[in-house]
Please model this.
Amino acid sequence: MTQVTIQSQDGKSFGAYFVAAADANAPGIVLIQEIFGVNAAMKAAAQEWAAQGFNVVVPDLFWRQEANLELDPTVQAEFEKGVQLMQGADENVTVSDLEATRAWLEAKIGNNRIAGLGYCWGGRLVVRMAADTGIKCAVSYYGVGLEQLVPATPEAAVPTLLHIAELDSYVPEPVRNTILANVKTRPAWEAYVYEGCDHAFARPNGQHRDENATTLAQTRSLEFMKKYL
Model:
């Protein structure tokens, strides 16, 4: 576990949290934050995925607005700040920072067997990564705003796995049905709905944490990533 510095595509630099796998030659994951920065939950998630055999890097995606933020989603003012920062981010620039992170990780570990995996806002951004960066596959946990993004994603995008919470207010049933219908048209894509689960069901120590769903989603994610990495 260490703090690292990554060079952006526009000649600046930003921070990221890196957790090495036990095997230096292991594949990698670019782990993408929710709207709360690289906080304790994201660091815990990075450690969980590293324990499963991946070199994991979590870039600070708010650095262009305010670097090194660690927001607490249970504090209303901090939740609202996260929403404002997400809304204020230029998504195309953020995706370029994610590709810079992927390139850094490839150089660090000496192989390009790298997946993108994101939660919430990161669950949206990873679908952008599937089309616009060099990752080999993408895993999206309860991504937001996917009903327009998924149908607009090119057929050439890399294989993508979507985890969707049944009770997620950001993905009501009509929205969910739009996403699922599109995924069915893509041979290498998969989507699963987790019954009785709410948004952020896999967040470490989160309010809506569901251990059974988290374990099932992790198993599916590991099988998916191993297939494509």
Notes: The first strand starts at residue 2 and ends at 7. The domain at 2-228 is CATH 3.40.50.1820 (Rossmann fold).
